[in-house]
Design brief:
It is a single chain. By secondary structure, the protein is an alpha/beta fold. Helices cover 50% and strands 14% of the residues. It has ten helices and six strands, in the order E-H-E-H-E-H-E-H-E-H-E-H-H-H-H-H. It has helices at 12-23, 37-47, 63-73, 88-96, 109-120, 128-136, 154-164, 169-176, 180-194, 199-208; strands at residues 3-8, 28-34, 51-54, 78-83, 101-104, 125-126. The protein has a six-stranded parallel sheet, sandwiched between helices. The longest helix has 15 residues, at 180-194. The protein is globular and about 55 Å long.
Length: 214
């Protein structure tokens, strides 16, 4: 019996490439695809796959929230996070949300196939990059002190909350009634004031300060 796999990722090219890889495996079958949280939830309800490959960055909700909903609604579906984020906060939160495993996209197809088969059998699987992210921070409870939230103005805090929630500049602009260029200015100012450089760091800061719950 084939393992029924569903794909949840907002990049069509990645889904198509992954679909081709899985189609070449005699024991795997792709039964559905979705590019937004709403599409993925609907697709899972219709197909009830054995394994759902789920990205974290989606247009309408983050993958942690979606994993939590899928686990509650369809506990029989094994969730495997497949994402570009190799960061401790994402690995931990996806596992807490019910994911069976976590694979960073740079790991390669052989690792992903192993992860899918492990998840289908009810075994946990972390790619090497995910393990390194956890180990790297294992003994780093005394993290560098970051500036307090009040260094950001109210609008900057709102932009930070939306960025950390997975929204893109054009979506934030529409929601706040400002231009995408203004959002980008806020993003640069936020990073400068908080002394961070990546979206993952912004998300970790937002979680730590209680702006979002993932």
């Amino acid at each position: 019996m084939k393992t029924r796999v569903a794909l949840g990722d907002d990049h069509r090219l990645f889904r198509e490439a992954l679909g081709s890889i899985l189609a070449a495996e005699p024991d795997l079958e792709v039964v559905g695809q979705g590019s937004t949280g709403a599409e993925i939830l609907d697709m899972v309800a219709r197909t009830v796959p054995d394994v759902l490959l789920l990205d974290i960055a989606l247009p309408d909700m983050n993958g942690v929230e979606l994993a939590r909903k899928c686990t509650k609604q369809h506990p029989e579906v094994k969730i495997l996070a497949v994402t570009g984020y190799a960061d401790k906060v994402f690995v931990e939160e996806m596992l807490k949300a019910g994911a069976q495993g976590y694979v960073v996209k740079s790991a390669g197809s052989e690792v992903l196939l192993k992860a899918i088969r492990a998840a289908a059998e009810g075994r946990h699987f972390l790619s090497t990059e995910a393990i390194h992210a956890l180990v790297k921070r294992l003994n780093m409870d005394q993290e560098r002190v970051l500036p307090p939230l009040n260094v950001l103005g109210p609008r900057e805090q709102e932009v930070l909350r939306l960025l950390a929630g997975g929204m893109r500049s054009i979506q934030i602009a529409k929601k706040l009634g400002i231009s995408p260029a203004t959002v980008d200015v806020h993003r640069r100012n936020i990073k400068r004031k908080l002394k961070v450089h990546t979206t993952a760091e912004l998300t970790r800061y937002a979680v730590r300060e209680g702006l979002i719950t993932i």
